[in-house]
Amino acid sequence: MKPTFYSELTSTSLQGELLSDASCEEILSASEVELLLLLDAAYQVRKTYFQNRVQLHILNNAQNGNCPEDCHYCVQAKTATTDIDTYALKPESEILAEAERAYQTGAYRYCIVMSGRGPNPKRVTQLAQLIQTVKARYPIEVCLSVGLIDEPAARTLKEAGLDRLNHNLNTSEAHYPKICSTHTYQDRMDTLHAAQAVGLACCSGVIVGMGEENGDLIRVAKELRRLEVASIPVNFFLPIDGTQLSEFVTETQWDGPTTLTPDYCLRVLCLYRFLNPQAEIRVAAGREHHLRGMEVMALYPANSMFLEGYLNATGKEASRTLQMIQDAGFIVETNGEISEHLQAPQVEQGSVLLKELEVLRPRMESNR
Ligand code: SF4
Question: How far apart are alpha carbons 9 and 30 in whole angstroms?
Answer without folding.
Answer: 14
